[in-house]
Amino acid sequence: MSNIKNSFMLRAIELSIESVNSNGGPFGCVIVKNQKIIAEGNNQVTNLNDPTAHAEIVAIRKASSTINNFNLEGTQMYTSCEPCPMCLSAIYWSHIDKIFYGNTRVDAANIGFDDNHIYEELNKELTLRMIPMEQINKSDAIKAFEKWNLKSDKIKY
Amino acid sequence: MSNIKNSFMLRAIELSIESVNSNGGPFGCVIVKNQKIIAEGNNQVTNLNDPTAHAEIVAIRKASSTINNFNLEGTQMYTSCEPCPMCLSAIYWSHIDKIFYGNTRVDAANIGFDDNHIYEELNKELTLRMIPMEQINKSDAIKAFEKWNLKSDKIKY
Description:
2 copies of one chain form a homodimer.
Chain A: H1 4-21, E1 28-33, E2 36-42, H2 45-48, H3 55-67, E3 75-81, H4 85-94, E4 98-103, H5 105-110, H6 115-123, E5 133-135, H7 138-150
Parallel strand pairs in A: 3-4
Antiparallel strand pairs in A: 1-2, 1-3
């Protein structure tokens, strides 16, 4: 037995399978508004030479373009796998209402996609991370923030 | 006194200031390979209607396109502010060697960019997050992973 939620997820899964056939990673995603799909995405990292082109990011960019708004409030995401930290953060930035997912991060790790490693790195103190981080030019960098702070017509996001 | 590292950071900061002038968020970024800038980015969320268009993501996409590779090993990022979790995760996915940053996440929070809220959400159990997450169609979703696992000519990333 299936309902409309399952049909959206089955489309995301279909995209994930097609993605494997077209040499992308095994991930698919759709974004739904008012019970209609407004954007679809699959993993295109290797096809597009774009490390940010995960299925969810591709779908978010398309959805925002479709509705001409950087704020995706009122939409739901159906993704074939629990989002990685990059995609989950993008979901927060875009204000999507709810996430439906199929596979878990453990399933992803089992086939070689170690998102969990990134989740762990995000939690570490800056000085303990695998990718070193060094602060320089702090007194110069703050100038843009001061300028933003004083700007009266800024568009918040 | 300035050296080449400071000059790269000063360019990132210049981009962050220009970004405020052109109605983007106050963030700029450059990516360097072999002591040369190969990509620049500024925040274009509101200008492009793309919630993922943070300075770092814009620069990563351009750098990958420039060198025709989704793997940015051998590059360094200079970003005017400590990356948010989306951008930091993207840096891990793209294998950038080192991150230089100017402002901190605390500075960002002080002008209304609450990345820290997202860092906290990522740490929570799925069931406790502000954006609800629901698993459906697991037995269907796993099929793409099985297909990927069996694929002999897959391109890892």
